[in-house]
Amino acid sequence: MTNYSNLSLERHNITLPERSSVQKQVILESPSLMYLTCKFTASGNLTSVCVTWKRGDEPLKNFSHTVEGNSTVRTQYNFTIVNSKQLGNYSCVFEDRKEQRGTFTIQVPEVKGKKKPLITYVGDSTVLVCKCEKCVGPSHWTWYRSNGSVQVPIDANMSAKYVISGAHNNETKLKLMNLLEEDGGSYWCRAVFPLGESEDQQELVVLSFLVPLKPFFAIIAEAVLLVAIILLFEVYTQKRKKHPDDGKEFEQIEQLKSDDSNGLENNAPRQRKK
């Protein structure tokens, strides 16, 4: 049986002015004793203020509330959080003419990687980095690679392609060597805390060396085509200059043929009269 006698105590407070709602983020790594306190300041009759606590939309019991002075209602909810199922939103709700709500959002620390895709080339090596800035350090880190809709764990001991460092620090690195185009895709880093898990996704793009040259090749092809068209036009122009009478001679030959045809047609009837 798990012993929770040595849990740390976490105290968090929210003060609600009249006609307002407040939200506060609470970051936890380990199981803890939670003391959540809300104070509501009102100008009207405090005896008409209804106080409740909710986790999400589910009402909670075993909370306390008192009236302090002539304008403040104080309420407190105490509990022990021991697993990830208890993470989420805990709200103190004050209902009078209007509802005022103070919400404590309890979660494990966020981990963050590079948001923009990391672009590299075939044969290179690269490093993916994940950090947990607001934490002491996870129990351990795990790296995954997406295979369709499935996350496949990366075991650095089973492949010389991968090297994982910082397994128990607040930063972890995944080094990938001798990259191939098929190594591109989605990679996930997951931090495991005693109270839950947190993960982030990174994109790796592996390009062939020919990819950056494609625009250059396209420009060269267009230039070669343009030069070829210019050369053909120059050759055609030079031929026209060297043989300027070719067209006239062709027209004279066609005219002679036409005259011969007309002469034959005119002689044919005369021969019949003889």
Automatic annotation (TrEMBL):
Q: Where is this region: Disordered?
A: 241-274
Q: Which residues form the Ig-like domain?
A: 17-105, 109-205
Q: Which InterPro entries match?
A: Ig-like_dom (IPR007110), Ig-like_dom_sf (IPR036179), Ig-like_fold (IPR013783), Ig_sub (IPR003599)
Q: Mind telling me which SUPFAM superfamilies this protein's record contains?
A: Immunoglobulin
| Membrane-spanning intervals of the chain | 216-236
Any keyword Translocase?
A: no
Which spans of this chain does the record mark as coiled coil? none
Q: Where is the composition biased (Polar residues)?
A: 261-274
Residue ranges annotated as compositionally biased, kind Basic and acidic residues, are 243-260
Question: What protein name is recorded for this chain?
Answer: Embigin
